[in-house]
Amino acid sequence: MENEKRSVVVSGARPTGRLHLGNYWGTLRNWAELQDKFNCYFFVADWHALTTGADKSESLAANTREMVLDWLAIGLDPAKAVFFRQSDVKPHAELALLLGMVTPISWLLRNPTFKDQLQELYKQKYKGQEDKMKKAEGVTRQLAEAHGHDADELALHSDMAVYGFLGYPVLMAADILLYDATHVPIGRDQLPHLELTRDMVRRFNHMFGGDVLKEPEPLFTSSPVVPGLDGRKMSKSYGNTISIFEEAKTLEAKIKKMYTDPQKIKLDDKGHPEGCVVCAFHKLYNPDWKAREQECREGKVGCGACKKQLTELMEKEIGALRTRRAELAATVDPEKLLAGGAVKARAAADAKMKAVSRAAGLI
Ligand code: SF4
């Protein structure tokens, strides 16, 4: 435990709106465990939010405060981990600038998430406005062709493909390296991002000599699968989420809407729980979920009763979180908490930037 406590974990979350159960089971529960074992820095990634949402900046500050209350309500503890807002600690930008000097653009263009997310944003922007999209595509195509670029990658030439978005892995590397993170909690699908950070470290250290930047290791976290109401991944952009603090009434209505086995119509029809969203949530909230699966397969329970029981189980846990959050909202000033965290984060970040600046020949 002592050795682990000397290890440093850094992780951030974008303040893009209220958190849902996918965030809770996928990230926050892991953070709550990590804070007991490691020196943790958890930050609100407000600059990252701007890389794909500069047009929605009016809600950033409020989302940040709400997110901090959410963190506290699920058990993150400022006495155990440092919470801060990224933009309160300017060395994040300073180190990103220096890392940008050693990061070839080709590395960033190869980042598969960049193109995938860009396509997704492009589709979202013009959702239901095919005429507008065609017009925008026409202009973009002309521009791309005029510059001799591949006109098929339209999103890449749109005004959404901004420099900050292309460069977000550089800012992400700075977030991590500034605190000499030894570990970064990630899912296996995020490994390419961490590899990019490690490539930057090696290039920086090679160019400037020494080993001022440290290569972090991945800390693979296992998270249960949390489907959305319709069976796709839970995501705000699909409109299929359940909030961590969902109100009892809307929770009940959402569970009623959950996708179930379409072949199970009557109570005694034999069901197939593997593709059923209700069953996936029983696995999370019902200690006897195996028995429920069996009952479903044998046609001993109907979907109505199965959903009703799930509603009761979830409301018990979510209701307790809601109460806790309401108490915190009445007593805690998130801004004060973030300001205190920023002082601690800045102390570490300033010391690191001094060493990095010296290595880069600036001091
Ligand atoms: S009984 Fe339950 S697990 Fe089986 S299909 Fe219906 S809702 Fe899903």
Brief account:
This protein has 363 residues and is mostly helical. It is built from 16 helices and five strands. Helix content is 56%, strand content 7%.
List the helices and strands and how they pair.
Blueprint: H1 2-6, E1 8-13, H2 21-37, E2 39-44, H3 46-53, H4 60-73, E3 81-85, H5 91-100, H6 105-109, H7 112-125, H8 130-146, H9 163-166, H10 168-177, E4 183-186, H11 191-208, E5 217-220, H12 248-257, H13 277-285, H14 289-297, H15 303-331, H16 334-359
Parallel strand pairs: 1-2, 2-3, 4-5
Helix pairs in contact: 4-15, 5-10, 5-16, 10-11, 12-15, 13-14, 13-15
Task: Describe it.
With 363 residues, this protein is mainly alpha-helical. The chain folds into two domains: 2-109 and 162-226 and 333-359, HUPs (Rossmann fold, 3-Layer(aba) Sandwich), CATH 3.40.50; 245-328, Tyrosyl-Transfer RNA Synthetase, CATH 1.10.240.10. Helix content is 56%, strand content 7%. The protein has helices spanning 2-6, 21-37, 46-53, 60-73, 91-100, 105-109, 112-125, 130-146, 163-166, 168-177, 191-208, 248-257, 277-285, 289-297, 303-331, 334-359; strands at 8-13, 39-44, 81-85, 183-186, 217-220. It has a three-stranded parallel β-sheet with strand order 1-2-3. The protein has a two-stranded parallel ribbon with strand order 4-5. Helix 10 (168-177) packs across helix 11 (191-208) and helix 12 (248-257) packs antiparallel against helix 15 (303-331). The longest helix is centred in the last third of the chain and has 29 residues, at 303-331. The model has no long low-confidence stretch (mean pLDDT 90). The chain binds iron/sulfur cluster (SF4). Iron/sulfur cluster is lined by residues 260-261, 264, 271, 273, 276, 278-279, 296, 301, 303, 306-307.
